[in-house]
Amino acid sequence: MHTNLDNQNPSQQVTPGLLGARCRDCSLQELCLPLGLSQEEMERVDELVSQRKRAGRGEALYHSEDLFDAIYSVRHGFFRTDVLLEDGHSYITGFYMTGEIIGMDGISTGKYSCSAVALEDSEVCVIPYQRLETLACEVRSLQQHIHRIMSREIVRDQSMMLLLGSMSSGERLAAFLLNLSERFDARGHSPVNFHLRMTREEIGRYLGLKIETISRTFTRFQEEGLMEVRHKHVRLLDVPRLRHLIRQ
Amino acid sequence: MHTNLDNQNPSQQVTPGLLGARCRDCSLQELCLPLGLSQEEMERVDELVSQRKRAGRGEALYHSEDLFDAIYSVRHGFFRTDVLLEDGHSYITGFYMTGEIIGMDGISTGKYSCSAVALEDSEVCVIPYQRLETLACEVRSLQQHIHRIMSREIVRDQSMMLLLGSMSSGERLAAFLLNLSERFDARGHSPVNFHLRMTREEIGRYLGLKIETISRTFTRFQEEGLMEVRHKHVRLLDVPRLRHLIRQ
DNA sequence: CGCAGTTTTGATTCATCTCAATTTGTGTGG
DNA sequence: CCACACAAATTGAGATGAATCAAAACTGCG
To answer: Cβ contact (<8 Å) for B165 and A107?
Structure first.
């Protein structure tokens, strides 16, 4: 019943909904948009979320200033969102893994305020925003969940403000690693043994530190026996002590 | 028709809806929740927003961890929201003036994640959240506006992340002053001549700087002819150059 | 008028940035 | 498969901006 009416970027590879690519069958239900919906409600969301979009490594899902028409949920892969400044510098506002929602910053002005770039070959579910809003009016629990997701983003950003405003480099990196650890854990991956998808430079742009400081702090953490890090592979050796470093 | 059924904090002074205290008569319409609503829709919001709540200087509207049940729109006065840390320190996540909405951080977990403290004797409109959600299901433009307000908060927090992550003390203070200036301007006050409601220490906790740094930066700005500051009174003398300082 | 709280100013310390060089890793094409 | 070039990461030395510690000046309130 759902034709491809939705505004879609023709330059991007888009696949229509496939069997097995439905919310009701998706392993990310518990993390993603349909969280807490009944079977019937989920089917209605399924009608909405009928498109996938791929982005190869380094490719952008959308750019800052693009017309906002959809939010995206990460099906697989890894994204960063970053804001470009006039002087050529840029900073990273977030990293997103499977089940997480990208693009809500665009709602307020009708244009995305940042660009979403894939850190590895990735795929997202396209959630057309107009239709989502319509459905949210009818499905109360969906509306509530959308509000919770947006509010969660606000709280997340505010804890980032704490980090950037008052933490040392060590505290920042520890907080960053523990946050990744929890999110991998929630997805059934090892919380102590994982691959960093981002470069040191990207970590730095996210944490408000220079690449050299990131590198030195990794080295220090290793010397102190807190972790092992080899290239992009990380093994957390002393989570309690890492937690103690940031004491919250 | 609106009785005082809403969950309200009995320790706070609450006044029922008064003639002249309705959204449809309120001078803040253009800034506040009812923005963009039709006359009829506004009347429905009015039924919802029937309570006011006062908070004297230094008093909290709510505390971190309190049960979330309402968001608030500032009728008059000035608020800050802050997060207390275990070690006794705290940081400020935002300042709020008339027409601005406080408390959306509570939606995600059902508890407020910060405390809202009045910087001067203030009054807010109480917007019971359950009922707002119900009404938003029926009034599409209200739902859209709520989403825009939340998204705006996300964008605002992200520009704060830029400030905290990559700006010098001078850039931070200039950005802070210009932001206040714009908000006063939008409310019909002078954009170059205004009173700071907050202490230097509070500015510091907001900008991620120590009070001494705030003070020194004010002094420097004065020496450079950018502004005059005497106690809490500020006069911006060279807005273009202040803007140039932050170059966006 | 005096006292507590706030703000300013000064001297010093310290963490991170900057600049620079080196090492290591990655991808490409011969 | 190796060599090459380029990108990413590490390490070191020195510069710098903000924090810290300390004291003085100012303000406003009772």
So the answer is: no
